[in-house]
Specification:
Layout: H1 7-73, H2 76-88, E1 96-103, H3 118-133, E2 139-145, H4 152-174, E3 181-187, H5 198-204, E4 206-212
Parallel strand pairs: 2-3
Antiparallel strand pairs: 1-4, 2-4
Helix pairs in contact: 3-4
């Protein structure tokens, strides 16, 4: 015998299904809303990270451009000194600090001489005072130069002796450690004046000291 649902029961069933549907829809909406919030948070985090990285890249490029501009203002031998020191890994900041060149006109070296005069020692004392006042450790390259009188080999050796004399003085009289210094000779190969004149040759007989950090 077939049962017939009463109208009241049908209404209850329909209402129950309706309420269940509403509850399910509300739950789904809540889940979607929560997912959207998490997604938006992640998107903002990624955007912030991208912006931070872009700023860091921009700052790095600006620093590199500034360093390149500063390097362009330095003498050729100072630029070479910076590259050598950087390649050797002895620089903490890769920064140029101070440079001084003392020539024969400053009574540093006479013709075919490597000894230091009193005036030369005074200038080395001034250089040392500047370097020692810098916060942190400085690295110094001492470059020896000559005029073009004599053979290339002889002048390379003479330039080295001149640079070494300056290094020994800075170590023994000013206490700058030897491991913070290096000497190199350019001999006659980096003239700054005309070797065909007496005055030009005197300028080319010189020592250049480059302080870096």
């Amino acid at each position: 015998m077939r049962k017939v649902l009463s109208p009241a029961l049908v209404v209850v069933l329909v209402l129950g299904l309706s309420l269940t549907g509403c509850a399910t829809k509300k739950f789904v909406n809540e889940q979607i809303s929560e997912f959207d919030q998490v997604t938006n948070t992640k998107i903002h985090e990624v955007q912030d990270s991208v912006e931070k990285n872009q700023k860091e890249i921009s700052d790095l490029q600006a620093n590199q451009e500034a360093l390149a501009a500063d390097m362009a203002l330095l003498s050729e031998t100072t630029q070479e000194a910076m590259k050598r020191a950087d390649a050797a890994g002895v620089l903490a900041m890769g920064k140029f600090l101070y440079e001084v060149t003392v020539t024969d006109n400053d009574v540093m070296f006479g013709f075919d001489k490597a000894g230091l005069s009193d005036d030369a020692k005074a200038q080395l004392d001034e250089f040392a005072a500047v370097v020692l006042a810098v916060e942190g450790h400085a690295y110094i390259e001492i470059q020896g130069h000559t005029d073009n009188i004599g053979s290339e080999g002889y002048n390379l050796d003479l330039g080295y002796k001149r640079a070494e004399a300056a290094m020994r003085y800075l170590n023994m009289e000013q206490g700058i450690p030897l491991f913070r210094m290096n000497v190199i000779s350019y001999g006659e190969f980096k003239p700054i004046a005309d070797n065909s004149t007496k005055e030009g040759r005197a300028q080319n007989r010189r020592v250049t000291l480059v302080a870096m950090q």
